[in-house]
Amino acid sequence: MSNFLLDTHTFIWLSENDSNLSNNLREMIDIADRVYLSIASLWEIAIKLNLGKLSLQRSYETIGTRLESSDILLLPISFIDTLKIRDLPLHHRDPFDRMLIAQAMNHSLILISKDVKFDAYPIQRLWD
Question: Using CA atoms, how far apart are residues 70 and 124, in angstroms rounded to an integer?
Fold first, then answer.
């Protein structure tokens, strides 16, 4: 069984058909049992768009429709996720990434990310 959690950049590259995401990873995502996107990633995208640190090919408002028409499931933030963050060592200080780490741990998800800082935590990270 393959259950994946997409890092924010992975989701953007997947949805925008960006070449930074390999065809091999696209295929793995496509055939996975379950693929999740954390609500924390949508929060991060919205904030970075507002700050001018990110631009998308399509408007932010289309993400909801694209998620509904895909097999990607939205993963809410739960209280147990916040408990996990409280106890995480500070190898990675980005609050959005720390939430993804906590969620990957709590839900036994493989995190698809190019960010090697995730390797300091007891999670499985996938990138090629």
Answer: 24
Please state, in angstroms and rounded to a whole number, the distance separating the CA atoms of residues 24 and 87: 34
Note the pLDDT of residue 6. Answer: 98
How big is the CA angle at 66 (ends 4 and 79), to the nearest 5 degrees? 50
Length reported for the chain: 128
Which SS3 state, helix, strand or coil, does residue 75 take?
Answer: strand
Residue 114, C-beta contacts closer than 8 angstroms, at least 6 positions apart: 7, 9, 10, 20, 127
pLDDT in tens, 35-89: 999 999 999 999 999 999 999 998 889 998 889 889 999 999 999 999 999 999 9
Residue 103 Cα to chain centre, angstroms: 10
